[in-house]
Structures are given as structure tokens and as C-alpha cells.
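User: Hi! Is it possible to get a structure for several chains at once, not just one? Here's what I have:
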Amino acid sequence: MSTASVVPGTPGVEEALVEDQNLRGGKARRVKTRLTSRAATVAAIVIAAVWTIPTLGLFISSFRPETDIRTNGWWNVFVNPQFTLDNYGEVLFASGASSANLLSYFINSFAIAIPATVFPIVLASMAAYAFAWIRFKGSDVMFIVIFALQIVPLQMALIPLLQIFSQWLHISGTIPAVWVAHTIFGLPLVIFLMHNFISEIPGDIIEAARVDGANHAQIFLRVVLPLSVPALASIGIFQFLWVWNDLLVALVFSGGTVDVAPLTQRLAEMVGNFGRNQEVLPAAAFVSIIVPLIVFFALQRFFVRGLLAGSTKG
Amino acid sequence: MTLVSIAGLPAAARGDLLGQFLEKFGLVIIGLAVFAAVIGLILFIADKAPKRGRDVIQLLLFVAPAVILLAVGLVYPAIRTAVLAFFDARGENFIGFDNFVWMFTQPTILTTILNTLVWVALVPTISTIVGMAYAIFIDKSKGEKVLKSIVFMPMAISFVGAGVIWTFVYAYKATGFEQTGILNQIVVWLGGEPQQWLLVPPWNTLFLIIVMIWIQTGFAMVLISAAIKGIPTEIVEAARLDGANPWQSFWNVTIPGIRGTLVVVVTTISIATLKVFDIVRAMTAGNFNTSVIANEMYTQAFRQGQFGQGAALALILFVMVLPIVIYNVRVLRKQREIR
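Assistant: Yes, the chains can be modeled jointly so their relative placement is included. Here is the combined structure:
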């Protein structure tokens, strides 16, 4: 399976995939290892409830009329059910300086996330191919440096990178600046993950292509990339969500204007003014998390794989 | 305004949105096209490289874009940050260890560092324990997949989104008014006084930490659950036949069987926790003594223009993550030797 054994010392990854198959095949017949069954069941239900209720409450709130949100809690819908789509209309479409304007930010989030996913994945695949299949001196050292870079906190790069963007490249506060920043910050992990996958491609396949006279560019395009589609999908989903959910990079490089800033940044601003935005915040939050939720529920298997693989992202 | 009235939006507003959309769409297309052209050119040159020394040229062309970007955008800035930590606010005058003296003498910064330590002590341990307990409790139960999704879901959404969700859980209304936050409502139902959960130190930090635990538990649970299922059935059965009770089999079979995964889970969550930023930024912006290093670094460097102090905080963060980086690199090297 594609991204198996990608994180060093992560036995979990391969087993997660085994588990996948078990669940699918329905063959997970195993010995019972429960602790004390009844207490365990109660504890599991409590945990499941604590993990669901906050999100559920916000979801219900997002459909409640303005005055209801301000004056009482979402659980009152069970006594007095009243629903409206006004909040969503308000945060998405209302025009005016003080309105949420989320549709614009929604567009920004996509405009940022799509290239910021494509760029690092393509560049990383090329580099990973070279590290895995072209022998050269110092390749091991270089690879380990790149691996170590993925854990270096972003914070270490922010100030000088912003200076480079604003003083040399003059792109600070534009969408391309956010693309480049995300590409750079994404590269170490994506190179590492793609390398783990590409280096597992059987040597015979590469060798056969070489014997047929193909050079590296041809092998990369015609052999390696097509074989890497599953890995590209998992890692791509993960990078996309990482970019979509990011706040720090956006805050530093986007400049925060309605032309550039993504949803997360706008949402953070709105929470900062909780009193004034209380009635539209639930709807705004759902607008910002709807894409990750769709990705999560529709592509959970890929998502789990990408997440397990990407667990050391920094 | 209702959804129906969207169609009745002023033409200007609609045109503006459409215009915005087209403009961004165009920008994305141009960006992707330029990128494709550069990559195409690189591959073309590699394809046409002279036979002699072709491997070397192709190799250079393949790694060059990534390596240049990393060198300019990550390695150089990281070194520069380390240097800036010893300079003044604008990065002009060398001031030795003054930024660090400032850091360790300012009560607010000391609180920030202390908070970060509390975060990194609590989040990985509690997330791992709750995640492990849950994984064991629901193992092989009916609807295991759904039960897993429930706890895993917060992992998909943004920290900011999670922050909003919990801001509502913690919402406060004065005594006598109807509560809007579920937590205070429960307190009131139990006969207590509503609390301002996010305003009173040091407890407010704990309420922020709960949000991070809420997010990270799913990650711990998924990895640990997978590891538990990877323990060979024979061993589990043998323990049972030997008369081990569930508790003994947990300590003597399950724990040794998942030790490697536990290490990965704890180190991964520790790194994420050390760098936690969004939750604090969105929920309290670091006010009321809730700041953490990553948030303070942002505040100092990008809000106050104190680049030197911001860099010094980033360096402290790096020093805290460093042991984990070294550990992971050693594991990686061991793995590559085995191959």
C-alpha cells in the first residue's frame, strides 16, 4: 500500500492499513481484550459525547435566529425549535465594511490552497526521485538535513523570510507570497514522504526503462509519476488541508486584506470581536470548516493515510 | 437577509464578487501556468542534456528547485533568526544576550514560558491516555468505525475553527441571565455560579489546553488503535489462556506491543503542542496570562516590531524542539542503515 512505513518508527502506519483491510473485509475476528466491559462502555460513551457535543452545538446554533443565539443556549431548540438560514446569508453575502464577507475569503482560501498544494508536491516528487534513484555523493547527508528541517519550527524562518519578501521580491501581502511560503514550509515533509514512496518502486522497473534508453526526465514523467498517484493523492489531501487550516503563515505573509487573507484569518478576527459577532460566528465557523469536513468524511481513508504519514509536519 | 434574497443583491455587489472570483481564478491559472512552464523547461533541459555527465546534470536539475527554495526560504532564514536573536529590535546593533535577559526577567514572558511547559506536560500525556483508553474500549465493538470518526473528526478542522467551537462552550452570561454556553449551563443546573472560564488565570490556560487535547486525542487514538490491532492474536490468546486478567494483559501484552507507537504519538503531539499558536491567538490572543511562546513570538515580532526579541523567542522554541529532532534523526539513520 502506498504510503506505508513513511514515518520512522511508526509501526502504526502499516497497521492502520492492515486495519483498513480488516474492516473492509469484516474479518476482524480477535480475542476480547476488554478491561471491564460495563465501565469501559460508559467511559467510551462519555468520551464520544464530549467529542461530539461542542461541534453539534455550534452546528445547531448556526441555524438559530439572531436573538435566540444571543439570549439562550442551543439546547433550547429541543423545546422551541426555530431555524433560519439568515446567518449564512449574512456571513456570505452581506456587503458593507463591517460585514463578514466570507465569500471573498472563501475564494481566497481556494486561490491560496490549490497552488500551495501543487507546487510543493511537484517539486518534492522531482527531488525525491533524484534522492532515491540517482546515486551521488552526499545524498544521504542532504536527505537527513531535509528530514530534520521538517521539525524546525516555522517561527525560526518567519522574520527573515518576510524581509526577503518585502525588501527583495516586493511580493509581501500578495497571494503568490503565501504560495511561496507554504511551498517552502511544505517541502521538507513532502520530500520525505515522496522519497519513502518513490524509493519503494521496484528497481527492476526503473532499470528496465533505463535499458530501453529512457533518461531520468522520461522515467520520472512516464514511470515514476503514474506509479505514484496513490501517494500523490494522500499527501496532496494532507497538504491541502494543512494550507487551508493554517493561520500563522497567512497572518504573517498575507497582509490580512480582503483581497488576500484566507478564511481562518477572517474567522480569527471575528472571534477577537466576540461580542459583536456572536450571532454570526457559528455560521462563519461552519463556512470555514465545511471543506475540511467534506474532505474528511468523503476521503477518510486517504485522509487517515496522509495524516499518519504527515504526523511530523511543522 | 435570507438566502432567497441573494438573487436580489445589488448588481454592483454581485458583479464585484464575480469580478473577484475571476481575478483570483486568473491568478491561480497564471501561477500554475508559470510553474508548469518552469518545470517543463527543467525537464526539457534534462531530457536534452549531453550524454557525457548526463546523470550529474539531470540530478542537479531535479533537486535544484527544491534545494534552492529550502536554502533561501528556510535554512538561511533560520540561521538569520538565530543571529537576530542577539540584535536589537530592528536588527541593527549587536546587544549580546540582552534579549534573553529580557526574556527571563520579564514576568509576562516567564509566564509565557511556564504556560508552554504546562501545555507540553499536559497535552501529550492526556491526549495519549484518553486516546488509548478510547481505542481499547471501542476495540471490536459495534460501530467502531463511526465511534472512531467522532473522536477523529476534530483533527480535520482548523485550530481556529476548534477555537470558535470551544469559545461557545465556554460562553459566559452573568448570574440571573440564561446561559448560552453549555459548560456554564451545566454548572448552573448543578447549582453553581457561572464562571468566566477564559479570563481567570491560571485556570484559563487549562481551558485552552482542553481544546488542544480535544484535537490531538483523535490522532493518538487512530495510531494506537492501529497498533493494538497489530499485536499478534496468538500472544493475546496465550496471555488469556495463562489466566491473565484484562488489567494484567493490558500491562504485559498491550503496552509492550505498542511501545514504539506510543513514542511516536507522544513526540509528535509534543512538537505540535510546543508550537501551538492558533488556539491561543483566536481564543484569547494571549491576554489574561494565557500566552505561549509561539504566540508571544508572533506578537513581539509582527505586532510590536521587536524583531530581536521575537527571534530570541523563536530560538528558545527551537531549542525546546531540538531534542525531539535529534531523537527522530537518530531513528531515521538507524532505519536507513537497516535497509
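The mean pLDDT of chain A is 81. Chain A touches chain B through 144 residues (CB under 8 Å).

User: Great, thank you!
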